[in-house]
Known about the structure:
Elements (H helix, E strand, L loop, with lengths): L1 H15 L4 H20 L3 H22 L1
Helix pairs in contact: 1-2, 2-3
Amino acid sequence: MTHRIALISALTVGAFLVGAPAEAKGCLKGAVVGGVAGHMAGHGKMGAAAGCAIGHHNANKKAKQG
């Protein structure tokens, strides 16, 4: 049941970010990884949110470099 919630949360975040593909890509990857890691620690939603923020930051940094 909690796996469904994590998956639905990640997909919902992705649905809101469809308008910004480069930024969404980093966020979605981070949200999935963070959501899984957070789920293992009992904090899937917080992990997904933190992963999204980190993924977004890394995508922006990569875009500025090249």
